[in-house]
Amino acid sequence: MSTKADLIVGLQWGDEGKGKIVDHMAQTHDYVCRFAGGHNAGHTIVVGDKKYALHLIPSGVLNPNAKNIVGNGVVLSPVDFIKEMVQFDNLEDRLFISDKAHMLLPYHALIDQARERMKGDKAIGTTGKGIGPAYGDKIARVGHRMGELHDTEKLSTKIVEFFEVNKAIFEVMGVELPIKDELKAELDGYANILAPHIVDTTQLMWKILDEDKKVLLEGAQGTMLDIDHGTYPYVTSSTTVSA
Question: Which among 94, 95, 103, 213 could bridge 30 via Cys, Cβ 3.0 to 4.6 Å?
Fold first, then answer.
C-alpha cells in the first residue's frame, strides 16, 4: 500500500526550518496543503536574491508545478492572505481555499489585544493577531466560514447581529461595533479577490487521493505549541501535529 500523503511538523516550538523542507519536498509533490494555524506562524524562503514571507499560503507556491490548498483547520485573515497573494502572479488554478476554513476578521485581533491588556501581568503573551478569538468563535459555533463570502449581504448582517447581542462585552473591551455598510464594503473587497479560490476542499482532496496524486501536508509552528500536547497554557490555539 502506497503512502497517501507526507506530513511535515516541527518537533519543538517552531522555527525548525520547516519552510525550507517544504519548499524542497514540494518539487516532487503535486499538492501542498496547509492544514492548521493562522498568520501568527510563517515560513521565510529565499530564492536567489528574493525573499518570500509566507504566513498562510502553503510554501509549495514557489514550485510552479505544485498546487496549493489552505485547509479547513486554518483560520484565515483575508487582509493578510491578500497581502501574500500579491507576491505571486500565477495563482489561478494553483491556489484553493477551503470553504469551511474560518475567517479571522479585524475585530478578532482587537479582542485578542483587549484580553491581553485586561490580564495585566498575567497575560500569556499572544501575538495579538486574533488567532485565539477566531478559533474560540469556531468552537462556540459563532464564527464565519470563508464560503460565506459568496453572500456578503447575509454575512455582514450576521456579524452586526453578533455584535449587538454581545454589545456589553465589547464595550468593556473597548471594541467598537461595526457599521454595516462599511463592513459590507470591506467584505466585498475580500470576496472580489478570494471568491475564485474558495472551493469544497474536502471533495477536492478525495479526488486527489483517488487519482494517487502526491500530497504534502505542511504543519505550522511546532509540537510543543500544540493546544493539546504542548506546554499548555503557553501554546497556540490549534492542533500543530498530525492528530
Answer: 213
Q: Which residues of 197-227 are buried (b: 16+ CB within 10 A; e: fewer)?
A: bbeebeebbeebeeeeebbbbbbbbbbbbbb
R_g of the chain computed on alpha carbons: 18
pLDDT band at 16 (very low <50, low <70, confident <90, very high): confident
Hey, what domains does the chain have and what are their CATH numbers?
5-99+198-225 (3.40.440.10), 103-193 (1.10.300.10)
CA end-to-end distance (rounded Å), the chain: 21
Inter-residue contact 205 to 217 (CB < 8 Å)? no
Strands 198-199 and 43-47 come out as: unpaired
User: How large a percentage of the chain has pLDDT more than 90?
Assistant: 61
- The pTM for the full model equals 0.91
Query: What is the tens place of the pLDDT at every residue in 132-147?
Result: 999 999 999 999 999 9
pLDDT, residue 1, reads: 39
Q: Give the active site residues.
A: 15, 43
Run of H or E including 7:
strand 5-8
What confidence score (pLDDT) does residue 243 get?
64
